[in-house]
Each structure stands twice: as C-alpha cells, then as structure tokens.
Model the fold of this input.
Amino acid sequence: ICVNKCQFEAVKIIGLADELKTDLMHQYGLNSFRLYRLPVPKKGIVTGILGPNGIGKTTAIKMLCGIEVPNLGNYENPPSKEEVLASFAGTELHDYLENLYAGKVKTAMKPQYVDKLPQATKGVVRDLLSRVQERMTLDEAAETFDLTEVLDRDLSKLSGGELQRVAMAATMMKDADVYFFDEPTSYLDIYQRVKMARLIKALSAEKQVMVIEHDLAILDFLADNVNVVYGSEGAYGVFTLARQVRTAINVYLDGYLPEENIRFRDRPIEFEASPPRGDWQTGDLITFNGLRKDFGEFELDISGGSVKIGESVGIVGPNATGKTTLVKMLAGIVEPDEGEIDNKVKVAYKPQYISPDYDGTVQDLLFAKAYETVTSSFFTGEVIEPLGIKYLMEKKVSNLSGGELQRVAITMCLATEADIYLFDEPSAYLDSNQRMNAAKTIRRMMEKSGRSAMVVDHDIYFLDMVSDSMMVFGGEPGHHGIGEGPFDMRQGMNKFLAAVDITFRRDADTHRPRINKPESRLDREQKSKGDYYYASS
Done:
C-alpha cells in the first residue's frame, strides 16, 4: 500500500542489479551494509575504482590497508586473519593479504575527507610534513605540491584545495609499497587535477597504486585498469573484475555490465558529439561591462560580456582567480568598485559552501521554499526524481551527507522563481552518476523554461554537459584574477585548455571527452591546429 500511496516514495524498490549469492567479504550487522569481493592492487599500474557513493569503495581500501579485516559475513563471531586467508587460498587476494598481515607490505592512504584533517592534526603545515620526510624532503614536497606559501599557516586556516594538496603531499612523502588515494582531486581546479594525476601516474611506475575518483576525465587519464562497483547506497556493494580503463568507463556510462549480464542503470549517460550552437538568436538577459573589484591583497578584472536568454554559461579557471566573486557580483551580494551590471532580473544563487543549519526535514525545507513548484508534476519529473530527492524527503537536513546536501541545494536553487540561476561548484561531493544527472537536470530546466544559468565548476564532463558557452578565468591566483567571455564552447575550451596544456579527443563510442597522452601524435596534431577540445569537422 505504501509503495502505491506514499508521497515521494518512502519505500525504495530496486529492480535492476541484485546482490550475489557468494563472495561476501564483509557485513556490519543484521540487515546492515554488505560488501562483495575486493579489488587487488598491481605493481606498475594505477588501479581505479569507479562507482556511486555509499556502496563500500572506502571500506574496501581500508581492508586492503589493514585498517579493517573482512569478516566474511560473520559479524557476530568474526574470523581470524588466518581463517580469512584460508578462505582466499589460491587467489591473488590471498597473496596480497598474506604479505599485508605478515608486515611485509607497507601501505599509505590519503583519506577521503580532507576537511577533517585540522581536527585530526593540530599545528602548521610545516610540522605535519616534517614528520613524513621519507621519499622526498619538506622543501621538495612544498615545491611539488605548491605549498611554499602555506608552510607556516595553521591547518585550520587552509582552504579545501590547500588541505587536499597537504594530504596528498603527506601521503606521497611516505615510503610505502602500496598507495591508496581516496578522491584525490576534490577541491582542486583542473590545473591541479591534471598535475596530481601526473604525480600519481609517475608513482605507479615503481609502486602499487589504487585510486577512487569521480572525475571521469581525470580517472581516464591516470588509471590503467578500473574496477566498476555497483549496488544500492547503504545496502550493498559489488566489485566487478578489473577492466581496461576505456572499457570500464564506457560500461559505467552505459549502465550495463555485459560479462555479468547486469544492468545497474535504466538508461545510458550520453554526450554530444559536437559543440553546442553558438549562434544565439535570443536577446541579452544580463550584461556586464568593465567590472573591477579590489580587496587589497586580491583584485579582479572582468571584461564586458552578456548572457543570452536561455543560455547556460560554464565558468572555468584556476582556484582563487575570482570566479565566485563574479557570481556574487551578479547575484548582488558583492558590489563592484568599477563597471556596470545590467541586472534588473531575478537571481537564484547556489553558493559554493552549503550550510546544513536547518532544523527540519528536506521536505519541510523545500515546501517552505516553494511548495507549489516543488509539488508540481513538472518539477517532480524534471528535478525531484532525476536528483533522487524523493528518497531524502524525510531526512533531517542536519544529518545529510555532503552529496545529499549538494543535491538539495541544487533543487532549492531550481525551485526559486528567477530569470538567471547561478551555481557555484554544483558537482562537489557528488559521485560520477550524480554529477551527470545534475548537469543534465540544470541544462534541461534552462532549455524548457527559457531561463539562463551560469555554472562554476572544475569537472570537464560536467561542464561539457551543462554549458552552451564558456567564461575563462586566468591571472595570478590569490593576487589578480582576469575573467573573459562568454565565448562559444569551441573558442572558450580552446582558450582554457591551451593554458592547461592538455588536449581532448572524443571517444568513438560514447563521444565523451578523453585527455590525450601528452606529446602523443594526437596531442601534437591538435595543438598545431589549435583544436584542444573539439576535433575539426
């Protein structure tokens, strides 16, 4: 009865992938989360892990680090390490765990939540890194990870990107046999993501490396093999056998595992083969001319530009170059010192940092914000269902995870009656599937409503899906930011990627963007033609 009658579906019915009858690695308790199979690190390659949030990816690498021991489903009377090894006799996993438990394998793990680092470790950056000078010195690490300016800064005063680079440095400075990186690019801009990917790739030449990553372009660039994980959030997770990286990502986007004959998503995620149209016939919704803002230590200059009615503008560039400041100026939160904004329009704003400070459920929050919009059949079909909000309705806002809070914030913004919607890093905390859903939802809502959007993000796949045009930021991070555009997608991406010094090609099967190997034939050819993103037609 409840399945048919309950508003927003309090009961979740899973009709696609299912649990296995064998290979149970771990169970936390009666009717608790269950994990099936484990991946195995291999020397000389980067092994990637790809799958949704909440299905055991972090649990798996904790077991491979020795932080947790598989209980094989016997949570009341867990087996000994000897019994665990006996159950894996004759497998690669047995050999790996045997060496791990015997102390013959040293591991190093970069944790998922770097924002918790200041609570776990007190003091300044220099003190933390000085304790782990094994593979490289403090000075070498500071230069490699761009930390020289923050060495004497307290960890509690660092930004998310700075904390990520500190955590990566602390992990790579250790002399281990196996390295685990849990979401190594969170908070980083595309420049830093590519640099981190190259460092991880270089490390794998002599070490065993395993990486959990949701940025598909970066995962494709750094991994050799990938284990796709499927399951149901909070219920179970199943690791599939490792596949070559291109095959694994294409299988993930398709939502179907051919060898296992399992469909874990009802429809594939698709990309456009060519850039969006650049010949907008609609008029200007908002224009801005010669914007300047001086904060003392940082100043921002924005050349003139406009956003067309119904247009979605992606905003790219390094961290600390003023992207968020521009969005705040357009939203009326920050006043420019010079220049003009013709913003006689209603603005909806999704900020970069979201506070869970609300005493009530998600349904209470959304109903209080815009009851008629949120309960309409149109909004339910276009936003509530694609973003999975119906499963969060009865949850307290204060208890939401980062990814859940992000999806609610995107929904709140889209539920607002406005002419232009400003999104600051909407892909943060979302897994790969949620990112693609969010990008398509924002784009689709703009197209169907005739409204406009500006989206700041660092995920190339996300920007590729959501954007019609592109603003590009540069300058000297932390000191002087320069914003230009909007440009059409081809011109904007070419301008941006030329500065990053990477080129993309399109996958022949899925049309998804793929980073070319540096100095490869394709890389050199595309650079010589100035085609960094879309191949010439």
User: Anything to note?
Assistant: The chain has a mean pLDDT of 92. The first strand starts at residue 24 and ends at 27. DSSP finds 19 helices and 23 strands in the chain.
